[in-house]
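Exercise 3.2. Students should predict the tertiary structure of the chain below and write it as structure tokens, then compare their answer with the key that follows.

Predict this chain's 3D structure.
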Amino acid sequence: MTWHGPTFRISDGEQIDGTWCLVWRRYDLIAEDRPDHHPEHLFVYADGRVTPGRFDSTDLAGLGKLLASGEIALDPAAERQWPADAPKWKSRRPEPRTDGSFLREVADEIARLAGRPTSADLLREAVRAHLRETTETSRAQLRDAYLAVPAHRRVYVLGDMERQDRPLRILTTDIGRAVDGDGPVVTQEMHRSALDYFAAVDDAVERAEAEGTARYADEPDGAPRPPVVLREVVYPNGKPAEPGDFVLRNDHESPLTYAGRTYPTVLHGYWALSSADPADHDRIRACATAREAQETGGRAARRADWPAVRLAVMAGLLRAKFEQHPRFAEILLATGEAGIHYTGFSEAPFWRADGPRGGPNWTGRLLELVRSELRAASPGRAGPGGPGPQAAARTAETALRAATRTGSQTGEKGGA
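Answer key:
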């Protein structure tokens, strides 16, 4: 059974996570020339709700009744045949999936979605418990945990494609008995070998976790903060005295000097520098508004190397804007470490977080980069709430002086 997702539903304003798989459903009113069962989506949710199709709703017990009645089937009728005398020990096929084992699988999916341990999780814990205290009691508990895993999932429950779950089958079989009835007769040495296998697996997992801890030591801790969303805004009655985070957008009026030339906005600079003809550059730079500059630049012939350098140019323009406008730098720094989503409809999807599926959001990502560079210019700055006004001004002024001393090398390189 292949589970798909993620999916979810909203219940009383709360998001309930879910997943879904394909089953076969029989309807009472069907044409005689059509097959008995038709494909149907079976949705399963973290709160235990089970939905065959889009509108019906039941639970795990209700699903069991649907399976028992034949209204829901797991496979087309033509595929419900299994060899009666198929060998178990040498076979690499899982056991047949039955209605009962499928219900256990659904119960596992509900537990996983709800953050509870699945039967496979409980099995792994039973293995560790048996390694800590190797007794017949712990081995019996291990056997019970193994049999609690859906039968059709046992063959690869260890995730070992070569050995499958044979170490488990050996360990849960009593000494002197044949594994699976047609396999080797278990000995004490085979039990010890299986225990060594699990001990080696645990050692490998511990080493991998230790290596991962060191390798990802700089991974941010805690839940991610909600993103700052920079929306495109239209002011039909004129812009307010304090436009807020609108100053972070590329069309905000913020004259900046970049590569030796001054532009009214970031958009003026971006589109002017994209043009292949110097006359187009000057005409775009002289446009009355950012949107006029964008429309004029969009119609002009672009530089041949523009796709390769446009990110560097945009990064340079943004650096210049916030280095030369300490008050805007203060607002940018006040966003803390939150992600920045640059939205709207007037700029290409390449630059914005485009719609519910997301977009490259390159403007937002570059704003996060510039914010980090501004904060790095003042090592004493810390705290998720952002800097105070005076500290932000000092940081921006320091960065501006550094850029002036180096002859704005970063900006000149970006404009090349």
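Discussion points: The chain has three domains: 4-78, 119-207, 228-414. The longest helix spans residues 188-215.
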